[in-house]
Amino acid sequence: MSSTTEREKEAPRPVRRPGDRIFEALSTSAGIMILLTLLGVAVFLTLEGLPGITASADEIGSKTGGKGFFGYVWPLVFGTVWAAVIALVIAVPVAIGVALYISHYAPRRLSSTLGYVIDLLAAVPSVVYGLWGLLFLSRELAPFYQWLTDTFGFIPFFAGNPTGGVSANSILTASLVLAVMVLPIITAICREIFLQTPRLHEEAALALGATRWEMVRLAVFPYARSGIVSASMLGLGRALGETMAVAMVLSASGVVTFNLIGSTNPSTIAANIALQFPEAFGTFTNVLIATGLVLFVITFAANFAARAIVERRKDFSGAN
User: Fold this and answer.
1) CA distances, 241 to each of 62, 131, 139, 268, 309 (Å)
2) Minimal CA–CA distance to 138: which of 268, 59, 248?
3) Which residues form the domain of 54?
4) Has residue 255 been placed in a domain?
């Protein structure tokens, strides 16, 4: 026993090369820089936005319709979350279907090509999506929205007429644009998660007589459940912070309404800042920065929840 202890004490320590030390220092510095940048943004938004939060309705009422800060920001928070949730409801089923087709149904050549095309959608600038939604999608959807109003107008979601009776610059159109924008993110993550399903689980399900769909439902989806949720949350974070596409497509009135195709629509925080900031001055500038702080908190919470789900997935075992 003593000889073993002596040999362990005499064993040479691993030599750390200068390149390893430099790389470790650079990696650590990069991580610290990210944290400091995040902290700096939070401090800036807090210090600059605090005067806007504490401002009275008399000080900012001319710009906020006679409302205080919280009365002004509440419709924006509602519109931001409402548009993002609608986009997720539309995008998640499509993304799961596309990812499943690429990973388990499509021929190898087609799946590779389709995967590249889906990934390229993420590289399209948001202003291009905004132009597409404004000049094409809204015009093409106007007759469909009019049919929804005539047929299902008794439902609050479809009450009222689309904007001007011709265009459809509504919250639903903006959400459709957002759904297309978050589709590549959700699809790419779901595709990788589906491909990581243990091959033995899939083969065991097929050997027991399961069909392809039953194998997917019993072997792939349970394994990928947390990954699907985390992908959806990351897509939610992307949708919450989108600015130009929503600002170009949405005809906002700053109201709180669940109507999807009406002429009065809630705005989003990011789009409102983009539209109002160039002409803002005085305390109203602090109000807009404070709304940015609210958006920062909402986005951070969504991404934090997604990260927590991803961390939980590390402990997942294929035998569970």
Assistant:
1) 27, 18, 25, 9, 21
2) 248
3) 20-313
4) yes
Q: What tokens were used for 200?
A: 């033995």
Q: What pTM did the predictor assign?
A: 0.83
Residue 96: give its domain's CATH number: 1.10.3720.10
User: Is residue 4 situated within a structural domain?
Assistant: no
| Among candidate residues 90, 89, 85, 112, the one with its CA nearest the CA of residue 101 | 112
310: which residues sit within 8 A by CB, 6+ positions away? 226, 227, 230
Instruction: Kindly report the three-state secondary structure assignment for every residue of 214-254.
Output: HHHHHHHHHHHHHHHHHHHHHHHHHHHCCCHHHHHHCCCCC
The answer to whether residue 161 is domain-embedded is yes
Report the domain count for the chain: 1
- Whether 174 is covered by a domain: the verdict is yes
Can you give the pLDDT at residue 227? 83
pLDDT in tens, 79-108: 899 999 999 999 999 999 999 998 888 888
Q: Cα–Cα distance between 255 and 266 in angstroms, integer?
A: 5
What is the distance of C-alpha 216 from the center of its chain? 26
Are 73 and 293 in contact by the 8 Å Cβ rule? The answer is no
